[in-house]
Design goal:
2 copies of one chain form a homodimer.
Chain A (H helix, E strand, L loop, with lengths): L31 H25 L5 H7 L6 H13 L3 E2 L8 E2 L1 H11 L7 H12 L4 H16 L2 E5 L8 E10 L2 E8 L4 E7 L6 H15 L4 H14 L5 H17 L5 E4 L3 H4 L8 H8 L2 H8 L9 E4 L11 E10 L2 E11 L4 H20 L2
Antiparallel strand pairs in A: 1-2, 3-7, 3-10, 4-5, 5-6, 8-9, 9-10
Helix pairs in contact in A: 1-3, 1-4, 2-3, 5-6, 5-13, 6-13, 8-9
The structure holds a DNA duplex (30 and 30 nucleotides).
Amino acid sequence: MIPGSGRHGRAGPANRRVGPGGPVGPGPVVTEGVRDVLEERRLEVLRAIVEDFVLSNEPVGSKALAERHALGVSPATVRNDMAALEDEGYITQPHTSAGRIPTDKGYRLFVDRLSGVKPLSRAERRAIQNFLEGAVDLDDVVLRSVRLLAQLTRQVAVVQYPSLTSSRVRHIEVVQISPGRLLIVLITDTARVEQRIVDVAEPLEEDVVAELRAVLNRALGGRRLADAAAEAATLPEGASPGLRPQLTALATVLIETLVERHEERIALAGTANLTRSALDFSDSLRMILEALEEQVVLLKLIGWAREPGTVTVRIGRETDVDALRSTAVIATSYGRGNAALGGMGVVGPKRMDYPGTMSAVWAVANYVGELLGAD
Amino acid sequence: MIPGSGRHGRAGPANRRVGPGGPVGPGPVVTEGVRDVLEERRLEVLRAIVEDFVLSNEPVGSKALAERHALGVSPATVRNDMAALEDEGYITQPHTSAGRIPTDKGYRLFVDRLSGVKPLSRAERRAIQNFLEGAVDLDDVVLRSVRLLAQLTRQVAVVQYPSLTSSRVRHIEVVQISPGRLLIVLITDTARVEQRIVDVAEPLEEDVVAELRAVLNRALGGRRLADAAAEAATLPEGASPGLRPQLTALATVLIETLVERHEERIALAGTANLTRSALDFSDSLRMILEALEEQVVLLKLIGWAREPGTVTVRIGRETDVDALRSTAVIATSYGRGNAALGGMGVVGPKRMDYPGTMSAVWAVANYVGELLGAD
DNA sequence: ACTTGGCACTCCAGGTGGGGGAGTGCCAGA
DNA sequence: TCTGGCACTCCCCCACCTGGAGTGCCAAGT
């Protein structure tokens, strides 16, 4: 048996051909040395199958495999290995007497143990840097990254705007846009701007508005958003009676904005790339597009990644989204140091260049993290 | 001959069966009366062909046509009419001895002269109103409208955020987010918020920032954006020497934001609906998706509509976008009174329910216009 | 002059029926 | 344990056919 699979790929230095796991398992007893060699070749066969299948999109047979890859054994031997791999559930045949294709489990093993991270060429690195450097503001950074990622990976790219949770209140602006209607603008230290409209009972004088503004900034400025929300709840109590009703209204809306933050914005690009892999998705392309229009789903997909630097791969049902059961999702997060500001990733067919895509995702996240961390 | 085609559909009361145009044309001389009857029946046949084809997506033949529609003539007569319609380029047959399908020219005539506007049911109206009323801010209004439109028409929906050009400066906020780096936030009376970051030579004191803010608001507040841009250009001259460099930097960025407004934001929804009509697009679905990711293209598509209340239909090559030559675009604009705030519309297959879609687009634009005009 | 039924003709859709070929599993021998 | 050989399976592709829908045209009717 080939050792089990973890859930996280690594984006660090390549770790292909790591030592085998425990040799425990049924079957005839063999010497350790021989066993290792066997194991290793089987893994090599699996790798070859995945790589060929990713390129050709056709079931790969023993003969072609033995020819194209320097396995040093005959097709017949490869056949034996393939039979074993099939028994263990790593590959399958679409129909009797056809070649083999990887199963989800096979892809998983490939990602966990067989795929190093393909380093980017210098040209690619420069392209990334140049492309992102031209950004003029936060929106632009996100827009550029998502397009870049889609272009590099030739898949659908998803980038989450820097999350509100981990940032602090920089400034709160209150403007009366028409009598009795206030616009409050919340500015965070990640340069993100949130706006809300609040209706108050009656028109306010300009100096009242100014005082509201002052009170809010004094109390909430510099706090983490979660703390600010808590503080906002207590504000009306301590206020002068004249301001209390307005403050109550403002606080309510602020808390909504701060805590519920139901508006986690997300940018998407490269949906056109889905059509290239339309065959892989058979008839479910529509379902995939629908799923990708759901913010909730996207957040679920890219929100899982914990600390920046870790690239997560989810294959097929591992995505926990039924409509995406024929896809694979590669996600990571970007941020400064250990604090994640947001997630990003790509969605593509399971038949995907994992090493290349993982490194592209990792690299873009890295640059974006640096860019936003530099403030 | 059937009179030529204009470019704009109408969203007012139905104008089906308007009187014929001039009877000038080659061919044998006939009496006016007979000529009219003939003309009219041919148009009716065209309408029937379009309607059936929209429903069935199959070339429609003379027999089915005579049966399903109360034309009062035999299939043979219908065949003659169809031959004439084909000569004139309104319909075509995919191959010899198949039924007929409308050409772009045929759809155009259908839209111009044959299609009334299907009124919405009361339930639909209520649904629209309810759905849009729950919006909490501008972003939400746009988001909800675009989704609603996609759902109602079952096509791809496009909604442009209220354009900057026709609105006025409500307030300008200047905040120093880190030493030497200013965030300027521009708030318009359409409740739109634009943000930009400006780097200045050296850190500023808080009172300097306050003065900058005051100067900008005094000079630009209440003006139309275009005028504000012009005014901003002159600002640095009249300012006190201490403020001049900062004002110059701010003015530059403001003018960019105000005039170039290269960031016309656009919301998109319902791309999944494209797959439903994938057959109509043959293999060009990818091109369509790519085109729809280009802001420029989208602006071109929905930016053409002039005054609110007019629904524009562009069919095939009329879109002036090569990738969309197999689609039809229905667009309008929304706004208050005569001033358009932005465009909206849908993109779908040429084989589309024009009356229904046109009325849906018109209705949603109407409600959105009211909603934003109510401020 | 328009309409209608009849009729021969065209051409696609869909089903059928083989080969050709790629791939497998198994076995016996090295 | 590896290898070559061999029989077998099953898909893919192509060629062929045939039913049916639809057309165009013509001659007769109104």
